[in-house]
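Readers of this paper often ask what the protein records in our data store actually look like. Nothing more is needed to write down the fold, since each code stands for a local backbone conformation. Below, we set out a record of this kind in full and without editing:
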Amino acid sequence: MRLSREELKSLMKNKMHKAGLSEKHADMAAEVLTWSDERGYHSHGAVRVEYYSERIAKGGMTVDPKFEFKKTGPCSAIFEGDNGCGYVAATLAMEEAIKMAKENGIAVVGVRNISHSGALGYYTEMAADNDLVSISFCQSDPMAVPFGGTEPYYGTNPISFGAPTADDRKVVFDMATTVQAWGKILDKRSRHESIPDSWAVDAKGLPVTDPSLVNALVPIAGAKGYGLMMMVDVFSGVLLGVPFGSHVSSMYHDLSEGRNLGHMHIVMDPSRFTDINEFKKNMSTVLDELNANPAAEGYGKVYYPGERAVMRREEAYANGGIEIVDEIYEYLKSDDIHYDRYDHKNRFAD
């Protein structure tokens, strides 16, 4: 099923609003979800809406949060989320970080006690749109085994960075510190497709291709990915005074309770280090040179981070809209808020 941007966003917004989220917050959340789906990041798009709607309806997301932005120094602040919608809190916190970075050159804004905040690339792109460079971290619940371990301790703990150029291109890099994000497995499950055997392991620690048999994810590049997982958890968990590591709340354990997650934005103004126009020009040169790099056999081109996502967006609209799984579309257009499928499930919604 292919939908226009407006139709998809409206369906997602209306579903979350019907579940109890304010119209404004539902609109902001739907915007980030649409941004993800149109770029082919379906793991962080419409596939998540039923889960959010169930959590909202059951009281596990504050629908009228008392957000508070508290400066802790000229370049630092805490955004208190009151377990409100993570998309909204992370967006508003990035807006404040952008203002602070423009005023003081750098901003470090911790966002704490929020619900899931989705694709981090949306927020770093916000900074790039304002001629700023940024990096964002967000913790998640235990899904991945530490290097050499057998029991999950850290989450997928994603990292994103963004940067502007002298033209309309932007660098937007967004990655999980696991070989794949759990959302990618969720997307494959919704499509009744198998997964590569390098993504996850079963209960015995053996590689698995059936997404319904996943017991734990694995870190990228072994010990290196494990170290990055720890870094993300320190910046967005331990440093912000919220639950960390194995103490991070489960996405599905009890949908009537808030998740108290942490998120960190670090934003910098390039003009405090070099001439901004020269910086942007050099960034464009970097992208041009990467694109011109001879491609290895089996690769048609060398792409810069974020380029293929923009290509997927353009291709989607050229082909009639954003592609959505039929089952998800049927849910979005239905009168049902949710089907009670996620509450009190394990970390993989089983």
About this structure: Residues 86-104 form the longest helix (19 residues). The domain at 2-274+312-333 is CATH 3.30.1370.60 (Ribosomal Protein S8; Chain: A, domain 1). Residues 30 and 208 are 33 Å apart (CA to CA). The chain has one domain: 2-274+312-333.
